[in-house]
# Entry
Amino acid sequence: MRRYRKYMYQAGSIDRPDKGKVKVINPRVLYREKRKDFQITQASRLRYRTRYFTDSGIIGSKEFVSVNYQRFKHLFASTV
# Structure
């Protein structure tokens, strides 16, 4: 798992202008993960899995949640 995370963080931090507008991992985030040797604690793993579910009722990445909220926001009603 550590090797996979290392690969993903390093590959995601490479800026590829030829690919258009692609999100790139911030160098600070890469540095923080390198310092932790790309380890992930059980608490972090649980937090990552439930983070956006608890915020919005949709499970997924921040981008996935945002896109799908926009698609279905007309179905949500505020009770407050």
